[in-house]
């Protein structure tokens, strides 16, 4: 199987991890304030005490599986862009691998936070709350709480695709919108709204870039 096809499947996998993440977020985790600045830390630890496996699965999908698929996608996109814009392609590869590393690290820390809180909660609930809150802050710093690295990468891929005419208008347009949303998460007052724009835009962009790689389409 050629790299472009594998990369396209990786892009669709990234989209699927986002869809899974949103589905769990807006149903099971919404009452706890996940994805907002008003997260109920004690409620989260109480949830972990009885549902640790679910949170570990969620973290593993949205972070770890996503990061592994993202690495393959980054390499495939680099290959796609390198013929027309080799310099831009090199930049996108570097930025993409940095983002994948941050996402992978955030996932590992998120799972350690859940496991540690689950072990500690039955005997010292307050300490479990403090521990989870501290590790969660590190997780957010790596990328769970902002989308700057992802926004820069998707934006650069889209610019490279536009300059080299190696990606279609739909993919480029979605990428520029998504990239802008990611950068706007840097502004605290816009964080939640910008994060939603980035997340929903990324789903559409991952699908578009995945199909473009699989079918070698320059018009999508």
Folded structure, characterized:
This protein is mainly alpha-helical and 220 residues long. The protein has one domain. Helix content is 82%, strand content 0%. α1 packs antiparallel against α7 and α2 packs parallel to α4. The radius of gyration is 18 Å and the shape is elongated. The two termini are 22 Å apart. The mean pLDDT is 91.
Weakly predicted, low-confidence segments: none
Order of helices and strands: HHHHHHH
Derived from helix and strand composition plus strand pairing, the structural class reads mainly alpha
Number of helices: 7
The averaged pLDDT comes out at 91
Organism: Candidatus Rhodobacter oscarellae
Protein name: DUF4386 family protein
Keywords: Membrane, Transmembrane, Transmembrane helix
Task: Write a brief caption for the model.
With 220 residues, this protein is mainly alpha-helical. It is 82% helix and 0% strand.
Topology:
Blueprint: H1 3-27, H2 41-82, H3 86-120, H4 125-144, H5 148-164, H6 169-184, H7 191-215
Helix pairs in contact: 1-2, 1-7, 2-3, 2-4, 3-4, 3-5, 5-6, 6-7
Quick tags:
mainly alpha, single chain, 220 residues
């Amino acid at each position: 199987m050629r790299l472009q096809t594998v990369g396209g499947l990786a892009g669709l996998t990234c989209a699927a991890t986002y869809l899974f993440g949103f589905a769990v977020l807006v149903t099971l985790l919404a009452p706890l304030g996940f994805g907002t600045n008003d997260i109920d830390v004690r409620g989260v630890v109480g949830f972990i005490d009885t549902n640790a496996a679910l949170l570990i699965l969620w973290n593993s999908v949205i972070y770890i599986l996503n990061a592994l698929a993202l690495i393959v996608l980054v390499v495939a996109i680099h290959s796609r862009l390198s013929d027309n814009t080799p310099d831009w392609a090199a930049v996108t590869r570097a930025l993409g691998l940095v983002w994948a590393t941050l996402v992978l690290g955030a996932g590992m820390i998120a799972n350690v936070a859940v496991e540690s809180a689950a072990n500690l909660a039955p005997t010292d609930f307050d300490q479990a709350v403090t521990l989870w809150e501290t590790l969660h802050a590190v997780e957010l710093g790596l990328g769970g709480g902002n989308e700057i690295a992802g926004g820069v990468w998707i934006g650069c891929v889209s610019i490279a695709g536009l300059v080299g005419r190696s990606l279609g208008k739909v993919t480029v347009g979605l990428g520029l919108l998504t990239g802008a949303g990611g950068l706007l998460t840097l502004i605290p007052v816009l964080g939640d709204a910008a994060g939603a724009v980035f997340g929903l835009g990324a789903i559409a962009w991952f699908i578009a870039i995945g199909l473009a790689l699989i079918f070698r389409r320059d018009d999508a």
